[in-house]
Amino acid sequence: MRVRGNNSISASSEPLYVVDGVPINSGSYSNIGVGNQGLNALSDINPNDIASIEVLKDASAAAIYGSRGANGVVLITTKRGASGATRISYDGYIGTQNTIKRLDPLTGQEAQDLINEARTNVGLAPRYVAANPTTQQNLFSSANTNWQDEIFRAARIQSHTVTMSGGDNKSRFLVSGTYFDQEGIIIGSGFNRGSIRLNLDHNVSDRVRVGVSLTGSRALSQRQNNDNNIYGVLSTALLLGSQTPIYNADGTFARDRFSSVENPVAAATLPIISARNNRAIGNIYADAELLKGLRLRTSLGGDYLNLKEDRFIPSTALQAVGSNGLGNANSRYDVGWINENTLTYNRSLGDHSFTLLLGQSAQKSVQQGIITNVTGFATNRIRQLSAGSVKVDASSDETLWTLLSYFGRLNYNYKGKYIFQGSLRRDGSSRFGVENKYGWFPAASVAWRVGEEAFLQDNDLISELRLRGGYGVVGNFEIGNFASRNLYGVGAGNLANYNAVAGIAPTQLGVRDLGWEQTQEINVGMDLGLLDSRINFTVNAFNRKSNDLLLNRQLPLTSGFANITQNIGDMRNRGLEFELTTQNVRSKDFTWTTSFNTSIIRNQVTRLVNDAPFGAGFANWVQVGASLGSFRGYVVDRIYQSQEEINADNLIARQRTGRTNANYQSPDTKPGDIRFQDLNKNGILDAEDQKLIGSAQPNSSGGITNSLGWKGLELNFFFQFVSGNEIYNNTRAFGEGMTGQFGQFGAVRDRWTTTNTDTDIPRAAWGDPNGNARVSDRWIEDGSYIRLKTATLGYSLPTKWIQPAHLRSARVYIAGQNLLTFTNYSGLDPEVNTFNASNTSQGTDFLTFPQARVYQVGLNLGF
Amino acid sequence: MNIRSKLYGLALLGLLGLTSTSCSDFLNPEPLNSIDRDVAFTDLAGAQGAVVGLYGNLTSANNLGLRVPIFADLLADNLDHTGTFPSFAQLKSRNPLPDNAELNSMYSSLYSTINRANNIIAQIPNTTGISDAVRGQLIGEAQFVRAYCYFMLTNYWGDVALVLTPTTTPDNSLFVSRTPREQVYNQIRTDLDAAESVLPAANVGRATRWSAIALKSRLALYRQQWADAARFADQVIAGPFTLASTYRAAVATRNPTESIWEIQFDAQVQSSYAFFMLPTANGGRFEMSPGGQRATLLAAYETGDQRRAATISDGTFQIVGRTGTVAQGNQIKYFDPGTGTDTFKAIRLAEMFLNSAEAKAQQQDIPGALVALNRVRTRAGLPALLAANVTQASLLEAIERERRVELALEGHRWFDLIRTGRAQSVLGITDATRLLMPIPNREIVNNPNMKQNPGY
């Protein structure tokens, strides 16, 4: 999730999640690399427990979270009990998930013909022959396996929650329990979670209130190797040719002996990768009115997370053939606590009312991990590490960070018409250099409720009008815990050990003056309600400037370090946000509401160290003047149709360079190869012939929701759209490259041959001597889409039907997710991003796990 | 009332308690997995640890764990690219793009090792509680490793930046420019001379006096300083090493008697040779193989040469403790893809015989050259060459062939063909700019003083 675009280059762009006042740890804690599909610590929160989610977008609102608010703040408040009769409710659904789309692979025969053609095109012997194969050849295979059909499945999903709440005028409670179970759409994968919640509030006296919020959960993920990995499930299903059968005649898994890629069904079913997550998030508070209008609140919150990961790869899987079985048992703990104390003073004097808040908080997070890795197993039947003979790794680690904050806020309003809010926060973080631990984060905002003025009272047209303006500074410290230090590290991972002796090695170059990244934002807005609020319109304009970006910048490799974290670079995000909600029909039996929102954000990197650009991911490029998420590469000119064209280019190359054997592109360029443009016009194709060829930043994005109600029936549907962004489809660079043994997609049927010259797909060429598959605009695609993200059709049963069953309420519904997608994007899913945690390498699709289409049937009962 | 005042008290205690604890302690935790650079070299353990870490960097798959040596076989005609990495394919077709990931990683790893060496050379003189002999040896080891890394850098890239001081701050002093190859060679020689005088005679897996002299021989050979090349080689030949009884024992056992400098690998610090070269059925990823069509190693062996079956599987080779055989045509010098315990013979005695033979042949000492050459040939089960049957030219050709098969997959072939001026004719390279690799493009971008090699 990203709030208002990207606000940092290399520090995290994830917003801060605060659950009942506890800032929680999100992100992945996994130590087992299964590609870029991480676990998400946020998935431990039960959606049914959530009463409200408030997204603080602009800096004047987020400033009270100061230091950590640069990416926005998401406040999650869970449901609490209310006094009165005890209520019990049940919420549940069951459903099924499946793929949205599958790609079109070549048939087995086509795949083998293509490989032979690619090889003979560069002077190599064909790989598949009809008779008398050499040791480097195989007989033609008659197999034709659609690997995607073998690994994808229709998968179950179900969720059941029971909630009980109630209380009297002294105490209120809510307890809930939930069970969630989801199979993955890839065979062998799944996730289930059980969680409980207890929220209590008690009035000690009419001036003192105490309470607790507590949730505990236990989750089990059955994971898969994924993404950029020759042992991944989706990656192998796309990149193993269809000429390989699933099984050999003897029932063992078949492999392509010319390819390092694992059999996808073996990849899905042989390894066992499980992650058990135990999580507790809790908060206790006491709130006392010391004097009239003066309240003291103190709270202590905690977030405890333990992720235990076990992996076993049997010796029958390619990944562990050589090591005779491979196992890991890892455990990672993150224990965080926060203590927050605030004094609030509320006072009204005639038309003036104000609230003053002073506070202080201290926060600490300690992470510990244990990693073990063993190979050489006695048998594939015992998966515990004690069954392995070779101890490859046994290590532990510990790291921590702290944050100390002081803050104040003043709210003032006059007659409810003129509203002012000012706040100031000072944060100190352990992550920064000695001189720059602390940062100041001020904010101020004003609002004028014009609609309350006399001249708009009783106006038939305008029911609400509010003008707003604000300015705020927020910070970002999402960098390594000791990023400012010059460090020597230990262990095989740092290449510090040799010949069974442990050593030390320089691991990090630091800068002492590393300090806070600060984002200044100006926001102006207007809220307008028309015709008794049947039409509500909100507009916001913001200009946010991030200074001293915390940037992992590249160093010259000759320094011995690849990069360093530094405050280098500035960036600007400007945007407009519109929200329009209209009650189209508002009658007794029928209601229809439409809500539309869109945002238009322009992002630009405005300063970098020495203004030197740098690359990231596969094709991304960070450059002053360009937006974050830009792509850079070569530009396709055309396909060479004849040797004469190539000779002509080479002749110019020789004249221009003065080298007798210089070539425009490659000595092995042949008709059917791509001619890339010589952008710098120096006669040869070189590294300088690359330019910006697209950007992952959309021109606009948003959504439209329609809610219709007729008596007890209700229909909701939500379309989401993104427009004007590009995707670098690296999956196609592999699946349409025609450069080797990888399975290829149907698009290559139109490849260049001497009889099919009118095409933009080059010839097949083993080893790609011309670099046809290099990073170029050939793999850039329009990523715009409109998607019917969710739709729900529900029916609330009439009271007279359910009363005999002692039901307070009963509702049944059918719902779906990702039901329709309109896009020109050729990949599995336009919403994917391979490097989902990185700000610099956005918009790349490389063998990434797609989202599923979900259909579900649900029931809500209240007793 | 009672409870309420207790709560007040608790709340106020919380407020005061936290504000009164020392903020500087709370905000200044020390790292628990690392130490500061300033304390790394303060004692003997730190100094010794840093030298272990120096060798540790060499074990990377981007360094002597695979890429640095093996690309000298892949770029030449000893290995074909049989796998799926486009970056390996670019190297095999000898048309790498400047952003080639393999070259980038290799360059990065070599300079990272050099920075570790520079730290040792700069800081250990100030370490206290350490004898002069130990201090000298540790610095000498760093000088040797630095010399080896610069030798590899200049072999692949020609003129390279010569960085001799540790990196301490990320400022514009990092904008180094390239130094002519001859000066790089001079620095290598200076480091090796210094190292030779302080290193011990034996130290398994680490630099010794002998490894320094042996590398001086190879350096002199590359510089066509024939007298030096022969003298240093003969000095090592007269040293404590003996040829292993069989070629297989020389290349496939740990630390045989002819090993002069051997990079040690074990299950915790693994090499990647077998994994990258063995077929998937044996647990490798089959990225490179001498059995492909663009490798001619198999045909380079004379009839009766025992090195052929010791280097390339005839289809019967079996990995100890595993079922199944390694298919015909695949290399078997490295044969532990699962736990990567194959060591790398960086310098061994057979090379010294071949250095001596070549240097002597170049100086018209045909009998002397034949004595050295025939030691290697007869160990491989081949007949000795006779002076009556050779000319200087045919002898040099025979030595080239001998080096190819004796030192196959040990990182020599590409460099040997280039230093003798034979690469273009043997490998059919028309564009001479392809004899040097492109400087990684990110260096050009991140360093205004770094210039690209011609043709890229």
From TrEMBL, chain B:
<dbReference type="InterPro" id="IPR011990">
    <property type="entry name" value="TPR-like_helical_dom_sf"/>
</dbReference>
<feature type="signal peptide">
    <location>
        <begin position="1"/>
        <end position="24"/>
    </location>
</feature>
<dbReference type="InterPro" id="IPR033985">
    <property type="entry name" value="SusD-like_N"/>
</dbReference>
<comment type="similarity">
    <text>Belongs to the SusD family.</text>
</comment>
<feature type="domain" description="SusD-like N-terminal">
    <location>
        <begin position="98"/>
        <end position="221"/>
    </location>
</feature>
<protein>
    <submittedName>
        <fullName>Membrane protein</fullName>
    </submittedName>
</protein>
<keyword id="KW-0732">Signal</keyword>
<dbReference type="Pfam" id="PF07980">
    <property type="entry name" value="SusD_RagB"/>
</dbReference>
<feature type="domain" description="RagB/SusD">
    <location>
        <begin position="337"/>
        <end position="425"/>
    </location>
</feature>
<keyword id="KW-0472">Membrane</keyword>
<dbReference type="InterPro" id="IPR012944">
    <property type="entry name" value="SusD_RagB_dom"/>
</dbReference>
<keyword id="KW-0998">Cell outer membrane</keyword>
<dbReference type="Pfam" id="PF14322">
    <property type="entry name" value="SusD-like_3"/>
</dbReference>
